[in-house]
């Protein structure tokens, strides 16, 4: 067997043994050994995880199992998790492993689209229906017919839009802005929010009837601070991505990795990725503790 094949076999054996024993340190040790023996781009392709999502902690394994059960069933799903945990990756996994993976997936961040434009974005509009509507436009629900619409940060959707979305979910048809005709659509809706929608229902900030329509199945994405042993895996993954982007090997020293593991990551995986990207661009060689933000070191 070639040297590369030997290393791959050794990694698989280490990961299998760690899972059987339930010892997170074994996974971390496997990553440390792998980092010292192979380029980051090769390490990234061997990391544990499922559905294109890296992770081996108990919380992530529970999430993977739930995705596997929920994906084939074409039901509405609500993804809950803090900002930066990777809720869109979960929505993509539900679509790509669902009943119609070849159909389109359209995503819209409800907090990022102006309230007066959100209806047009989702349901489309006719020419002349408002200033700037120079031609007919299909909304995401029509364009994704047969596929999935992902509504991120749905807790920020205005109440009047919530009522219109509820009607679409109930009737299975959309009416473009400025039109008197409706069109039947067959769309799976996956929604996500970092806010507690059940609490928002109690304060009348979110429609209770819409909440129950969306919350057929709930998937919880754990924050990074609760994903024991996953930081080294994610660091290895992002080093592989950055190595390809920058055209040079990106490596994190053991000392810097220890600091990354000890930080609380309030911004979760997105914050970790951004920190590594910043450090990789500014560092002259392997990322050292001095290349990391001061608050990471102080933690």
CATH superfamily of the largest domain: P-loop containing nucleotide triphosphate hydrolases
Assigned CATH architecture of the largest domain: 3-Layer(aba) Sandwich
Global geometry: elongated
Query: Which consecutive residue ranges, at least 5 long each, have pLDDT under 50?
Result: 1-5
The structural domain count equals 2
Kindly report the CATH topology of the largest domain: Rossmann fold
Order of helices and strands: HHHEEHEHEHHEHEEEHHEHHHH
Describe the overall structure.
By secondary structure, the chain is of the alpha/beta class. The protein folds into two domains: about 5-50 and about 225-299, Helicase, Ruva Protein, domain 3 (Orthogonal Bundle), CATH 1.10.8.60; about 60-220, P-loop containing nucleotide triphosphate hydrolases (Rossmann fold, 3-Layer(aba) Sandwich). About 50% of the residues lie in helices and about 10% in strands. The strands form three sheets. It has a five-stranded parallel sheet. Strands 1-2 form a two-stranded antiparallel sheet. Strands 6-7 form a two-stranded antiparallel sheet. Helix 1 packs antiparallel against helix 2 (about 25-35), helix 2 (about 25-35) runs parallel beside helix 11 (about 230-245) and helix 11 packs across helix 13. It starts with a helix and ends with a helix.
